Amino acid sequence: MLLGLAAAVFLATILSLQIELDQRHDEQADRIESLRLLPRGELLRPALIGFHHLGADLIWLKIVQVLGEPVVTDQDYEWLYHALDVVTTLDPQYSYAYDVGGTILAELANRVDWSNQLLEKGVKANPAAWRLPFVLGFNYFFHLSDYVKAGEYMGQAAKIPGRPLYVDTLAARLYVEGGSPLLALQYLEVMIQQAEDPQLRVIYEEKYKEVVISRDLGTMDQALARYKQTRGRNPQTLADLVKEGYLAAVPEEPFGGEYRMNSETREIESSTHRERLRLHRPD
Amino acid sequence: MSTTETILQTEGLTKTFKVGFWGRHVTVLEGLNLNVQRGEVFGFLGPNGAGKTTTIKILMGLIYPTGGRATVLGRPVGDSRAKDRVGFLPESPYFYDYLTAVEFLRFYGHLFSLRGAALENRVTELLDLVGMSHASNMQLRKFSKGMLQRVGIAQALINDPELIVLDEPMSGLDPVGRKEIRDLILRLKERGKTIFFSSHILHDAELLCDRVAIILKGRMVACGHVSELVGQGATQSVEMVVEGLSSEGLEHLQPLTEKLLIKGNQVLIVLRNQQQVGNALEIVRVAKGSVVSVTPQKGSLEELFIREVKGTQSSLREGQ
Amino acid sequence: MRVLSIALNTFRENIREKLLYNLLIFALLMIGSSVLLTRLTVGEWDRLIINLGLSSMNLFGVLIAIFVGISLVSKEIDKKTIYTILSKPVPRYEFLLGKYLGLMLTLLVNTAVMVVGLIAVMIYLDAPVTLLLFEAVGFIFLELVVITAVGLLFSTFTSTTLSAIFTLAIYVVGHLSTDLKQFGAQMDGLGKAVLNTIYYILPNLERFNLKGQVIHKVNVVGTDVLLTTAYGLAYAGLLLALASIIFQRRDFQ
Ligand SMILES: Nc1ncnc2c1ncn2[C@@H]1O[C@H](COP(=O)(O)OP(=O)(O)OP(=O)(O)O)[C@@H](O)[C@H]1O
Ligand SMILES: [Mg+2]
User: ipTM score of the complex?
Assistant: First the structure.
């Protein structure tokens, strides 16, 4: 009887302490902290006495948990690179981790350098995974505008059995067209199709629309240039370009805004994205 | 014993065990009634598997009865105040074999909150009592079975208990050892202790006990004073050894005897009952023989025991 | 007083156990081996010593806690030594508590020996010994306090083999319980309820893990130390109370 009472009191204490301790800490911060404090993979691996694959899975799950939250509070993302490095040291053949990890580092964390580092490590350990050089190529193409390097990686991906057909097409076009918006759009279409994570898909779709703006601006810039050349002056509005036959139609702005002529600079711009995406301007 | 006081009592004590994977019930004790008075030496007898150890474990609070009631020193079993005044030696005991005899007894003394000089004196006294003083600083792992049994008894006496419960205290002991334990029990009885012990060795029980209970398959089949139990229905035969009897005399004796054995010059005659003794002596005198010995044969507890066991077994067989 | 006598007797019994010495020697060898390993790595070698030292201490402590803990009571029942003790005026819960405290004393001495070994290595290699290190060791001991009680609870109603398996399982799941809760947060209905219940009922052993903090010199708030200590002790208390309730009803056969 007395023992039962004692048990009940202890149980109540435990539950309240559990809740109290949880509330004293920001759970996401704790999780990020625990990932940041992971021992190096080389040290952790022997400690897991043969269970390092399971270890890799569990750490990966933890990473996914943090990234799955609506807002990632810690923006330095060093923890992410460290955790991914540990996962891929524990299980170097975990190509999915390089793939998704590399993509997230580049797209969410804006750390293309870390992304490339991770992917290079993956390519070395998994020469048969076509996605890894493919994503590397994407990084060089979009983030570093290094079309030669991008072409090389895409060529590497195009040699690996099991790749989809469009890899070959993309590789071929990269050699020829460099950084054209049309190529970029095709590349992004592939990325959107293959993205499993809705968050990533949203990022790619944004990018896609930005490239669409860049493509449209390019087309309209050409029309504007021809207009200036033949008429010797700027048109009043974009509608003039269409009316006088220099442009088939003013394209639809993908973000739901509009294209217009800046009254001061006399340059064509998008109402939603004033800054031009410089990377993809066809040279 | 002028004033009687019940020291140990069970009423309708029942115990069933669940055995096997399906939890089949096996009844081990069935409505056992026991009553032990202060100052008695009480023998608890029965064949293997009769339920003696089970009963004793219930009395010591080690297992719980399925039905019935048991009190020790007037309190329900398991009550600490009763346990304070009880000593117990389990069946074929094992002890912490890394302790020496002295450490072992000291440990049990601590459980009764004995300390200091009082404890040390008690330990020395007890080791002396059970004749183990010579081995007081030896580890129990080096003890023989008989030695263990003795320190086991010493352990049961550490708190100077009023009631001493011993489960087969003589098992594994040589005749000298058994005699010593018997003497010890009698000495404890002299000091006014009540002793309740189970045993197979009926001879010992017969020598020691004021009363005995015989149980069989969890039921009481006999209970009472040894002399009463043995007297009941037992034919009192008489053994007679005669020397130099003529063959004529032998012939005359024949009808009186149950058994007749000739060993050289001597003849062993077993007479059916005491009434025949006079006639037999007369025949021997006439036949010029000489009587070497006349011994009345008391019925033994063993006879009774075997009769009861066989009786119950056959009645059970008929019942089936 | 009775509890203390039983505890001291248990301690005595434990220190005669060969398993204990084997594990202790193995742990000391592992701690000592960091002297050699530091020759192999470049830079950051005090973290290697601390990592190896605390991990060995933790691992071997847990092994001893589980394997000695589960046999504490069952050995007494098997050897029937429990008969003489419980026939004396010793309540069953006092017996359990005594056995438990005896093993805790053994583990305390054991941990102390390993700490001395670790500090000796650290001083030899000129690595700084911090207060945080002692906090981490304290928490490792707190984990042992809980794990031993888990083993004891299981051993009051199952065989030693099953107790060992269950205790190991609780040890592993206890370290993952926070993760389980997070997985649960992304499920709905039953899955979430189950995982949440597991989280609140099972011991959250990851709370006692300060190894990362020691290596990265991240200080722990005093209130957290206090609350976590209270958590560990309350948990052990709960387990002991449950074990006593079960033990009280048992038949010793
Ligand atoms: N835990 C148990 N589970 C099932 N049956 C049991 C259990 N303990 C005892 N028994 C049974 O109860 C019966 C009585 O056993 P107990 O040990 O009390 O006999 P005993 O009279 O002491 O015998 P012995 O003279 O051989 O010591 C036996 O048939 C035994 O098989
Ligand atoms: Mg028996």
Answer: 0.85
Q: How far apart are CA B249 and CA B91, in angstroms?
A: 55
Does any CB of chain B come closer than 8 Å to the CB of residue C251? yes
Residue B2 banded pLDDT, cuts 50, 70, 90:
very low
User: What is chain A's length?
Assistant: 283
- Distance (Å) from CA B49 to ligand 2 centroid: 7
Q: Name the β-bridge partners of B304.
A: none
* Cα–Cα distance list, B52 to B49, B55, B224, B226, C156 (Å): 8, 5, 17, 19, 26
- The rounded distance, in Å, linking the Cα atoms of C112 and C209 is 18
Residue C7 has pLDDT above 50, yes or no: yes
The radius of gyration of chain C from alpha carbons, rounded to an integer in Å, stands at: 20
Residue B284, Cβ neighbours under 10 Å: how many? 22
Average pLDDT, chain A: 83
Q: Domains plus CATH for chain B?
A: 6-85+161-232 (3.40.50.300), 237-297 (3.30.70.3400)
* For residue A283, pLDDT beyond 60: no
Per-residue HEC secondary structure of C64-109 comes to HHHHHHCHHHHHHHHCCHHHHHHCCCCCHHHHHHHHHHHHHHHHHH
Pair B249, B289: CB distance under 8 Å: yes
Residues 6+ apart with CB under 8 A from C120: none
Q: Which of C132, C227, C238 to mutate to test the interface with A (most CBs of A within 10 A)?
A: C238
Judge if the beta carbon of residue B28 lies within 6 A of ligand 1: yes
B163 has which bridge partners? B86, B194
Which pLDDT score, from 0 to 100, does residue C237 have?
94
Closest alpha carbon within chain C to A60: C179
pLDDT per position as a tens digit, B227-273: 777 765 455 677 888 888 777 888 888 887 777 888 888 888 888 77
Supply the angle between the helices B145-156 and B116-129 in degrees, to the nearest 10. 140
**Angle between helix C71-78 and helix C160-185 axes, rounded to 10 deg:** 160
Is A24 within 8 Å of C228 when comparing Cβ atoms? no
Gap between the Cα atoms of B160 and B163, Å rounded: 9
DSSP assignment letter at B139: B
Q: Read off the tokens for C143.
A: 């984990």
Give CA separation, A157 vs A126, A131, A138, A194, C157, in Å. Answer: 12, 7, 11, 15, 60
| Collapsed DSSP state (helix, strand, coil) of residue B263 | strand
